[in-house]
Every structure is written in C-alpha cells, then in structure tokens.
Write a structure and sequence with these properties.
With 218 residues, the chain is mostly helical. The chain has nine helices and no strands.
C-alpha cells in the first residue's frame, strides 16, 4: 500500500510541475501563486522552478507558529514540483500561434487537475500552501474560503506587480480547477489516507471551494 501511495505521490507531483510549465508556455495567464513565482523569477537570476522551491520552503517555515506538522508529501511537494516545472520549461518550446497556445493552456489546466487529485489522494501530507491555509483557519476560526481567498489575492497582486502573467488563463484556472480536482480526487484517493483533503480550500490544486484556485503548490 505504501509503495502505491509513494508512486502516486511522485507521479502526481511530476505531472503537476509539467502542467505548470505548459501553462507558462501558453502565455495566457497563470494561477495566482504561479503569477507570483514568475514575477519573482523575472526579477531575480533564479529559475521558475527554483523560485517555486524557495517559496515553498519559506511558506513551510510559517507552519512553525501555526503548529502544523509536515508529511513526506509536504517536503516532496516543495522539491519535486519545482524541479519538474524547470524540466517542463526545458522540454516545451516557446509557442507562437494562438490556437496552439490555447490548446496548451487547456491541456495544462486539465493535467494540473489530474495531477492534483493524484498527489492529494496519496494522503501523505498537504502541500506547504495548503497547510498554511488550514493552520490559519485553525488558529483564527476564519472560514476556509476567506483565508484561501486572502492568500491567493495577495500572491496574485504581488506577482502581478512584479510582472507575472495575468490573463484569461488566470480566470479559466480559477473557475475550472476546483471542479476538475473534485472529480479526480475520489478516483485517486487511497483508502487509509486522508488525501490531504481538508474541507477544502485546498493547496494550489487542492480546492474546489476556493474562489481563485486550488494549487498543489503547492
């Protein structure tokens, strides 16, 4: 059982990172956290994937005062998604025609939902952003939707200010990723794990109830 859960976790995280690269190459808008990652990457010598890893590590430090405990899936989320995103950006060339970019965006969002369902369903720990959200909810008593929306809007605003790509893809991701994960998660949830499902205003891909995203990134 653990072998299957680990395999599903790492395949899901790998595909999640690749889906992020697909959406970046589409150039039509990213989810809020990736707008932030891209904006920081554009202003530093760091690669997109490295920014994802560093951001995840910093967010994980915020778990300490919230008394959240990471799992193997949490640590893996930080590292594997960032590496997979850089791999995807290396493999996928720049796209120039609108039909191809639109198709890449749609495929990236759909793959993101599948990957999110897979790694959440492995039940080996939430992503760092998800844990931040649930920790704040537990400490304040605020609603998941309120906390998730505040975090996502902050990431989006800062990323946009730094030059991250906001566009139709940002809106499309916001309105479709929750329903996709909602369908995919039961297919991948392994009995005996909680699937990282917390009610769900989810991690970067994790949240059907989120108004802006769910993100595994996450």
């Amino acid at each position: 059982m653990m072998t299957r859960r680990l395999a599903q976790l790492f395949v899901g995280l790998l595909l999640y990172g690749l889906s992020m690269a697909m959406m970046i190459r589409a150039g039509l808008g990213l989810d809020p956290w990736d707008v932030f990652h891209q904006g920081v990457g554009d202003r530093t010598p760091l690669s997109f994937g490295t920014v994802v890893i560093v951001t995840g590590a910093v967010v994980l430090l915020l778990w300490i005062p919230l008394r959240q405990k990471p799992g193997i899936g949490t640590i893996s989320n930080i590292v594997v998604i960032g590496l997979a995103a850089d791999l995807g950006l290396w493999l996928i060339p720049d796209l120039h025609t609108m039909p191809v970019r639109a198709a890449m965006l749609a495929a990236g969002i759909f793959l993101n939902g599948i990957a999110g369902g897979a790694y959440i369903g492995a039940g080996l720990g939430p992503g760092p952003r998800d844990g931040l959200m649930t920790g704040i909810v537990a400490r304040t008593g605020w609603s998941i939707r309120r906390v998730r929306t505040a975090i996502e809007l902050t990431a989006l605003a800062v990323g946009w200010g730094l030059g991250g790509t906001v566009g139709v893809g940002t809106i499309l991701y916001a309105v479709t990723i929750g329903p996709i994960v909602h369908v995919m998660l039961p297919l991948f949830t392994i009995r005996g794990g909680d699937g990282g499902w917390t009610g769900r205003g989810g991690n970067r891909p994790d949240a059907p109830s989120s108004t802006l995203s769910p993100r595994p990134n996450a």
